[in-house]
Specification:
Elements (H helix, E strand, L loop, with lengths): L6 H16 L13 E12 L3 E12 L6 E5 L36 E5 L14 H15 L6 E5 L1 H12 L7 E4 L7 H19 L3 H16 L2 H7 L4 E3 L2 E3 L3 H12 L4 H12 L12 E6 L7 H10 L4 E6 L7 H4 L1 H19 L1
Parallel strand pairs: 3-4, 3-5, 5-6, 6-9, 9-10
Antiparallel strand pairs: 1-2, 2-4, 7-8
Length: 352
């Protein structure tokens, strides 16, 4: 179905004009370059489980700030760098969808992203997805962005997007929620609990890195599917007197790569945060595109159906089939591109 126009969307243009006129006031970061802005701001937030805290929000913007704004967020291992930029010479976690000519094109939208609070490992308290949503709102305040054309969230980012839609509806035209729902499924939560126990066991053995690597390897198994592993890997072999399965090198690579960029504290607190997701979908009134993957073992398809049934605003459900399971958003470039283009086109036509 198409999203119907609403009064709030019409009001957006005036707010962007006001923001564009005052944008120069916020260009204080020395890292400002044409086409990309990176910086950080200091804020104080009342966290749901930990009281008032002083935090630093590290953000990145791609695209002109006079364009319609999108907030883009991924899983707990995602960060503010969405795609490679000539300004900073770094890669991005979603370069399959972000860039010139792609669904999230900085020439058509102002793309805003940030590092999750807790991602630097310095915040060792319980972090609720609602806290992340409030941090997004605080960042938008600092950047003088009054309203988002859309919040595009994947995995944990989709959970935070649902929280943002419920808590800050006046700042949002539409939500695209990919592989994330309103509550943590008990099976997936149990899987994550075992990952956190692996980190704890590593710490007891004075080898946190090894524990974190094992936790990541267990997580990778939950992101992908048995069907993919059957296609990619062969039979076990005896190597130096022990049996080694074909997938172990791949899993070791995933674990070591993750350890190189993530602290155990960051992983533990953000993993816990997923399990704290609890939201009544009836509180959300903005248009929502829900994207589910039938092979996703972390977000069973029934959970997405339940979310759609309980939402009260305009809703569209798209169900994909993918051998990549929960990681389909990162691997199924063409299908995700089509969905994003359709959802953003609806936002544009509703504003017309």
């Amino acid at each position: 179905m198409s999203f119907a126009p609403n009064t709030a969307v019409t009001e957006r243009h005036d707010s962007y004009a006001a923001y564009a006129a005052s944008a120069a006031a916020f260009e204080r970061a020395p890292s400002v370059r044409p086409g990309a802005v990176r910086g950080e701001i200091a804020v104080e937030l009342d966290l749901r489980h930990a009281g008032r805290r002083a935090l630093r929000l590290r953000y990145e913007i791609q695209g002109e700030r006079s364009l319609p704004a999108l907030f883009v967020a991924g899983g707990i291992s995602a960060h503010r760098h969405l795609a490679p930029s000539r300004e900073f010479g770094e890669g991005g976690w979603w370069e399959s969808q972000v860039g010139a000519g792609r669904s999230l094109d900085p020439s058509r939208h102002c793309l805003v992203s940030f590092d999750w609070i807790g991602a630097d490992g310095t915040l060792d308290v319980a972090i609720d997805p609602a806290d992340q949503a409030d941090a997004v709102a605080a960042l938008l305040d600092a950047l003088r962005i009054e309203r988002l054309q859309a919040f595009v969230g994947y995995s944990y980012g989709a959970m935070v997007g649902l929280q943002f839609a419920a808590r800050h509806p006046q700042r949002l035209d539409a939500l695209v929620s990919i592989s994330g729902t309103h509550r943590a499924h008990p099976y997936a939560a149990a899987w994550r609990a075992l990952q956190r126990r692996a980190v704890a066991l590593g710490a007891l053995q004075c080898d946190e890195a090894q524990g974190l690597a094992l936790a990541r390897e267990l997580a990778v198994l939950s992101y992908r599917t048995p069907e993919e592993f059957a296609e990619r890997f062969g039979a076990a072999q005896v190597v130096d007197g022990r049996v080694r399965v074909d997938a172990e090198d791949y899993l070791d690579h995933c674990g070591n790569k993750y350890v190189a960029r993530t602290s155990p504290t960051a992983f533990l607190r953000l993993s816990e945060s997923i399990d704290l997701q609890q939201l009544d979908p009836a509180a959300i009134r903005v248009p929502v595109t829900v994207v589910a993957v039938s092979e996703d073992r972390l977000i069973p398809l029934g959970e997405s159906y339940d979310l759609v049934e309980r939402l009260r605003g305009e809703t569209r459900l798209r169900v994909l089939r993918s051998i990549y399971g929960h990681d389909a958003c990162l691997k199924e470039q063409s299908q995700i591109d089509t969905i994003l283009r359709e959802a953003l086109a609806d936002c544009t036509s509703a504003a017309a």
